[in-house]
Design a protein that fits this description.
The protein is mostly helical and about 270 residues long. It has eleven helices and no strands. It has helices spanning about 10-35, 45-115, 115-130, 135, 140-155, 160-180, 185-195, 200-215, 215-225, 240-245, 260-265.
């Protein structure tokens, strides 16, 4: 990404400008001397001492000031270069951990949902999660959310450990990005990258699990609009879709904060 840093040739350009200015000043001083004392003085050896005193008296303070400017600007460029290096180092450290978290999630998802032996389980679980959609969607806001939470937990309780681990692995990616010092735009970039790890139906299943078990994950998904890529048919009821879309929940859903991804997903939030 472009970050607006000064171009590498900025320091060289500045120094060149200062040197050009110094030469211009020397020329103007020399011209002033000739205008004041005449060109014949230059041919007189005795006049060189007078010329040196004249030039030195005028140019030394100016050149000292220009030298100070060059020194200060050099310090500035060094500080900026150091800041860029620190930023690059921080990004490298962030990405090192981030890609490890994504890889752990990817392996967990593959062991549960991917491959010929898991394809039927994937489809069946998604079908069960969406089985009450029509009934739940006719209920009012608070009632629909509460009953949807009960329904999802009932569906996943038979395989609670594996599905909880699946949800926890991806929520750890979300928490890590959200808690980082990255800019909002860069966070969105890494959120998008992480979401690309999901394969068929997996995001639908994850959204249902964390809705019922992890209010903190729901809060992050709402804030960054991460569910916007899902079709309406992917949510277990309309109330959950509206919740993920950012609708004011008016206390109907407890978006409390948990200390960690593990604690959040091990607790029954609703």
């Amino acid at each position: 990404m472009r970050n607006g840093h000064r171009k590498p040739w900025g320091a060289s350009l500045f120094v060149s400008a200062v040197v050009a200015l110094a030469l211009l000043i020397f020329y103007l001083v020399f011209k002033s001397y000739i205008d004041m004392f005449g060109t014949h003085k230059i041919n007189d050896a005795a006049a060189w001492g007078q010329f040196g005193d004249f030039v030195g008296g005028l140019t030394n303070p100016i050149l000292s000031f220009l030298g100070l400017l060059v020194l200060l600007q050099t310090f500035r460029f060094q500080i900026e270069a150091s800041a860029r290096q620190i930023e690059v180092s921080e990004i490298e450290k962030f990405e090192n951990t981030f890609f490890k978290l994504v890889d752990k999630f990817d392996k967990q998802a593959a062991s549960i949902f991917r491959g010929a032996k898991n394809e039927n389980y994937n489809k069946t679980l998604r079908s069960k999660l969406l089985s009450e959609k029509e009934r739940l969607s006719t209920q009012d806001w608070a009632e629909g959310l509460a009953h949807a939470g009960v329904h999802v937990r009932k569906v996943i309780e038979s395989d609670n450990d594996r599905l909880g681990s699946f949800g926890r692995k991806f929520s750890q990616c979300l928490y890590f990005i959200d808690n980082s010092s990255l800019t909002h735009d860069k966070k969105e970039f890494y959120f998008t990258y992480a979401l690309e790890s999901f394969m068929k139906h997996e995001m639908t299943i994850y959204m249902a699990i964390v809705f019922a078990r992890s209010p903190k994950s729901v809060e992050i998904i709402r804030r960054y609009k991460l569910a916007s890529r899902l079709k309406d048919s992917a949510f277990c009821c309309n109330q959950v879709r509206e919740l993920y879309s950012g609708k004011d929940y008016d206390g109907a859903y407890p978006l409390q904060k948990a200390k960690s991804a593990d604690e959040d997903l091990k607790s029954d939030a609703l």
